[in-house]
Amino acid sequence: MKFFNSIFYFLLLLGLGLAVSCSDDDDPDPGDNEEEEVISQVVLTFTSDEGEVVTATWFDADGEGTGTPTIDEIELVEGEEYTLTMTLANTLGSEDEDITAEILEEAEDHMFFFSFTEDIFEDPAGDGNVDNRANPVNYNDQDGNGLPIGLSTTWIAGEHSETPGEFNIVLKHQPDGLKTATSTVSDGGTDVDITFPLHVEEGEHDHEEEVINEVVLTFTPTDGGDAVTATWFDADGEGVGNPTIDEIELVEGEEYTLAITLANTLGTDPEDITAEIVEEDDEHQFFFAFTEDIFSDPTGDGNIDNRDDPVNYNDEDDNGLPVGLSTTWTAGEHSETPGEFRIVLKHQPGLKTTTSTADDGGTDIDITFELHVEEGDHNHEEEVINEVVLTFTPAGGGTAITATWFDADGEGVGNPTIDAIDLAANTEYVMTIALANTLGAQVEDITAEIEEEDDEHMFFFAFTEDIFSDPAGDGNVDNRTDPVNYNDEDDNGFPVGLSTTWTTGSATSAAGTFRVVLKHQPDLKTATSDATVGGTDVDIEFSLSIQ
Length: 547
Known about the structure:
Blueprint (H helix, E strand, L loop, with lengths): L6 H16 L18 E8 L4 E7 L10 E2 L2 E4 L3 E10 L6 E2 H7 L4 E7 L4 E3 L14 E2 L12 E6 L7 E9 L15 E13 L2 H4 L6 E8 L6 E6 L10 E2 L2 E4 L3 E10 L6 E2 H7 L4 E7 L4 E3 L14 E2 L12 E6 L7 E9 L14 E13 L2 H4 L6 E8 L6 E6 L10 E2 L2 E3 L4 E10 L6 E2 H7 L4 E7 L4 E3 L14 E2 L12 E6 L7 E9 L14 E12 L1
Parallel strand pairs: 4-12, 16-24, 28-36
Antiparallel strand pairs: 1-2, 1-5, 2-3, 5-6, 5-10, 7-11, 8-10, 9-10, 11-12, 13-14, 13-17, 14-15, 17-18, 17-22, 19-23, 20-22, 21-22, 23-24, 25-26, 25-29, 26-27, 29-30, 29-34, 31-35, 32-34, 33-34, 35-36
């Protein structure tokens, strides 16, 4: 930095002084008090919360001479919090002059401003207050007027980048009331304006990532049964061999607790990485991604792309933040096409928060398993139903109207018979449904079985648009939330549909349709499960006339 104390300016001022002394005017020049400090050395000292010290020095060995000042690079560690203190000196005389002390003595006249590469710091965010005084900088010191100085400030390094950024400090001299709560870098004289290169390094955790060559996923059915395991194994670590990886095979509708174990088996003694994660759980978090809706719970595709997307974590660290060694999953519907299940373990020392994402910190594992959802036993044991009887009973009294669907030979070649439904206009009916299997030696009452397992069954209905005045619309086969007047519920408060209420509209000249769909949804029936979920026991379409 070049200041106004060169020999040239010295001689010029001396000459002016002689001229003034020879004149008849003995009044001092009012500009004589504007003497900017000679500063040849600025030292920045960043001290981390752990006591690690990083210094960077700007030094101008010959002041206004022809030599170029030397300037150190600042090297900080991502996620670390630092207190920055600055010392300034004039080392050009016979004795070093402590400019820091002079700034403190005249604190009401001085203020440091800072600018830096956008978001190179986690805190303060942004790019500093050189361009906008109101932008955040964490000052730790104030003058007698409560205004910031800047000899001490606090900084949290942002994410590591291979490309260095910049850190600019500007010391402004703002005497005679220029320094205010709104004064900016444009006000007053400039004592220092230095730009340091700044590099944010990877934390030690990135250089000391765990060696993990075995990951075992264990899915245990919450209702009991055999656990499902899938293992990823890398026999030679960083060698040329490819890891082996098992397929995950779950059963549709089953709820599982997933436990993850990790190990390093490459040494003479296997290393239990799971225990190390538990010990340092405030630094670790698993994130998950999976084929869209391959699970009924959690829904979606996981939280790798969006931290807020649902994942059912069962474990937390001491800060109440999720870990992921234990999670809960409910398999969705069976599909012949396998999906994917990806797990990512992030190491986030000093970085793990309620909003940290899969982009933060180092990556210990990133593995994608193939996942296949198999048909459950209920799909192979669907009820044999060859008779369905709908009975519409007028709510105000009168003769009931029945319509029967009957399949005399079950899976045989004959076509079922089906009655038309003929209802009176503008009449309210209670409809009940009875189902049976008449193909055996004894008639099997399927209605009773549905009532016994009503938490696994639900009827859905579709009908010609507005053929009923209540419910309106066209039914809930295409949209679960469309209105149907159910009269019965299971123990969970979800509708069944063996009894419903219908009010016909006006007489129609043409017949419409009335479709009944019975879904079997063991472990799948919820407040939002629809006609696409689970197995189908009945799907019948009747002709419907309103007279």
